[in-house]
């Protein structure tokens, strides 16, 4: 079947009030997520888009003294294969689990 590949471009910026260290610069990056290209995958993509628009997808974490953007609490599949252990597919429960979180 087809694969949906989502790209989130997070630019480097300065953290805001509510982040771990307000006013500190942080490093962005490109983040990819994968979904099956079926109806359920497309519906999940719309929910993930809404979550992103509401600022729920990423967080800023301190890593080796450097602030950087990381995935937040919503689980994303960052690989198309490798199974659940490698954050990929196959994972029969993923779409159900992510929709429950969303």
Which characteristics define this entry?
single chain; 102 residues; alpha+beta; Enolase-like, domain 1; two-stranded antiparallel sheet; two-stranded antiparallel ribbon; 2 helices
How would you describe what is shown here?
The protein is of the alpha+beta class and 102 residues long. The protein has one domain: Enolase-like, domain 1 (2-Layer Sandwich), CATH 3.30.390. Helix content is 23%, strand content 31%. The protein contains two helices and six strands. It has helices at 39-53, 94-101; strands at residues 3-10, 13-14, 25-26, 29-36, 58-63, 66-71. The strands form three sheets. It has a two-stranded antiparallel ribbon. It is elongated and about 45 Å long. The mean pLDDT is 93.
């Amino acid at each position: 079947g087809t694969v949906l590949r989502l790209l989130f471009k997070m630019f480097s910026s300065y953290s805001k009030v509510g982040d771990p260290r307000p006013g500190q610069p942080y490093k962005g990056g490109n983040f990819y997520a994968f979904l099956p290209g079926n109806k359920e995958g497309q519906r999940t993509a719309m929910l993930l888009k809404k979550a992103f628009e509401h600022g729920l997808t990423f967080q800023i974490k301190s890593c080796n003294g450097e602030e950087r953007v990381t995935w937040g609490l919503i689980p994303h599949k960052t690989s198309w294969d490798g199974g659940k252990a490698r954050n990929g597919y196959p994972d029969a429960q993923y779409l159900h689990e992510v929709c429950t979180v969303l």
